[in-house]
Specification:
single chain, mainly beta, three-stranded mixed β-sheet, 4 helices, 9% helix
Length: 500
């Protein structure tokens, strides 16, 4: 680009800006350096700049974002380098420089609660390679590099035992971005013996579950959308387990359901500290409408149940509820949306909204006592034996803002301001302050999205590759707990392995 003076008369200068256009630049060689653990094909399948394509800055930016979202590299250190520009040939080489970070995590906890010691061991391998599992040389210390995820978790106390296993392959078959996932879980809860203070192992509540899922990246409306589908089955077995959770102590229930979800996530490069973009998801979990064809007169069963309650006939009530819950019938809809806005270079604002609804196909059969919403506290699941969803709302005790049996509707609104202290690979630390509110409701007749419990506070998050996300929040509840008249005040929450 050359500015040329072409005339100067009477204090007026004429200038010409002469531009010599070069050839359009095409990508020539595209390479990656710095990946000493992750296999090349895991990276190259995420790259949007291909040899022979016309140069596109948008594709370079998108490639950096996709590599950061993998979670295998330090998102702050990913660098696109432009090498060997050749104006005569119209080509340029692209080199993506990455820096590996620890992608596996270990969870080891011990604590006292619920009348006994609770121990937890969790292992999460987020860049696993199952094809190398029988290769002795691949154990350094585990087979890694293929981008698969494998997780094992054991939790036990005197009163319960939980075992779970999950595996996911993000590119099923290696050709298309279709994620396959599966999980297995087994939980056994023993009844608390009030006379001795010990677990009565002859009386138990067992849950066995299995899930298979597929998630496909879409191209329409754009390729940030993902369509996910899953089929899951849980078997609930009660063996002389008489508590307030069910009206029957001996029996079983089956939960066969299909889940379909649509999500879109275009948040910026670092998945731990996004600075721009949004993430939303809507899911529907559906059971088979058994009442349409199982031949049971649920209107009469509803009348018989009401009469059994009046007569205080526990045996008849247990028989009726065993019939109602032999196969669970329900539908559940969830929505969650997050938005990230960079106010200054480092300061990020994150609004968030959530909604959930549990319904019944047949009103005579009623809404099941499973799969309900429990609002309040840190949101960490606490022995979720009945499929409940623990919804975080800081500033209040865990699950304190719902009825003891849980709610069938909930909504939550949150506004969070974040500031990074350090975003280095060894430890990402950021401080935050928040405003939020939410509530659960027992029916649509009670639903009022503006009648919520409010809170505010501040906290800090620390992400270390080996241990995941840790943090602490100090929340102040401005409203009273159900059954109380004074505001709740301050509550401290410890966060392990999740984000609000």
């Amino acid at each position: 680009i050359n500015p040329v003076e072409v005339n100067a008369t009477n204090n007026v200068i004429d200038m010409e800006i002469r531009i010599s256009e070069g050839k359009p630049a095409y990508f020539n060689n595209v390479s990656v350096v710095g990946n000493d653990k992750t296999n090349d094909h895991v990276i190259y399948r995420e790259i949007r700049t291909r040899p022979g394509q016309l140069y596109s800055k948008a594709n370079v930016v998108r490639t950096v974002r996709e590599l950061g979202q993998l979670g295998f590299f330090d998102a702050q250190e990913i660098s696109p380098n432009f090498n060997n520009p050749n104006p005569n040939e119209g080509t340029i080489d692209m080199e993506y420089s990455v820096k590996e970070t620890g992608s596996s995590q270990i969870e080891l906890q011990g604590g006292y609660g619920g009348g006994g010691f609770i121990g937890t061991l969790g292992l999460s391998f987020n860049n696993f390679s199952i094809k190398d599992i029988f290769k002795k040389d691949a154990y350094k210390p585990i087979p890694m590099g293929d981008g698969q995820r494998l997780a094992l978790r054991l939790q036990a106390s005197r009163f319960f035992q939980t075992y779970s296993f999950s595996f996911s392959e993000p590119w099923l078959g290696g050709k298309r971005p279709v994620q396959f996932s599966t999980s297995l879980s087994q939980t056994k809860q023993f009844l608390f013996d009030q006379r001795t203070g010990n677990a009565d192992k002859s009386r138990s509540f067992n849950i066995t579950g299995i899930t298979f899922g597929l998630a496909k990246r879409l191209s329409v409306p754009d390729d940030f959308f993902v369509l996910s589908q899953a089929v899951s089955y849980q078997r609930y077995d009660l063996n002389n387990y008489n508590t307030g959770l069910f009206t029957f102590g001996d029996g079983y229930a089956n939960n066969l359901s299909y889940t379909i979800g649509l999500s879109r996530n275009n948040t910026s490069v670092d998945p731990i500290y996004p600075t721009a973009g949004s993430s939303f998801g809507v899911t529907a979990k559906l059971s088979i409408p058994y009442s349409l064809f199982d031949g049971v007169d649920y209107a009469q069963l509803k009348e018989d149940r009401a009469q059994a309650i009046v007569d205080q006939d526990g045996a008849e009530l247990a028989r009726i509820d065993q019939e109602r819950y032999k196969w669970l019938e329900f539908y559940k809809v969830n929505f969650k949306g997050d938005w990230y806005t960079q106010i200054t270079k480092d300061l990020v604002l994150r609004p968030s909204v959530e909604f959930g609804f549990l319904g019944a196909y047949n009103n005579d059969r009623g809404i099941i006592p499973f799969e309900r919403f429990f609002v309040g506290g840190d949101g960490l699941g606490q022995q979720s034996l009945d499929g409940r969803e623990a919804v975080a709302l800081r500033g209040y005790p865990n699950q304190s803002l719902s009825d003891p049996d849980g709610g069938v509707i909930y909504n939550k609104f949150s506004l969070e301001l974040r500031y990074p202290i350090t975003l280095k690979a060894s430890a990402k630390i950021y401080a935050l302050t928040f405003l939020e509110g939410g509530a659960s409701y027992n029916s649509f007749r009670d639903y009022n999205p503006f009648n919520i419990k409010r809170s505010a506070g501040l906290g800090i998050r620390i992400f270390m590759p080996a241990f995941g996300l840790l943090g602490i929040d100090f929340g102040h509840g401005f409203d009273s707990l159900p059954g109380e008249t004074t505001k709740h005040g301050w509550e401290t929450h410890f966060i392990i392995g999740q984000q609000f």
